[in-house]
Specification:
The chain is α+β, with helices and mostly antiparallel strands and about 80 residues long. About 40% of the residues lie in helices and about 15% in strands. The longest helix has 21 residues.
Length: about 80
Amino acid sequence: MTTAVLTPTEPLKASDRCDRCGAAAYVRVVLGGGELLFCAHHGKKYSESLAKVAVEIHDFTDKLIETETKTTTATATAEDER
């Protein structure tokens, strides 16, 4: 009998890139022998297939939405000040 030990996963860094296209990674897929990183687009595109083989999937795409909202708000505020 094999027991899997799950360890906390550190957040993705700006330097982490999608293994498919090279965009910023927002999804980490832990496999039995390593991990794969995906951008939000490819993480979603391959999610069903990855769920079948992954030990863990860490989806940080909610951080992408927060970043877009902050950027949009900052841009609108800067334009209002002109």
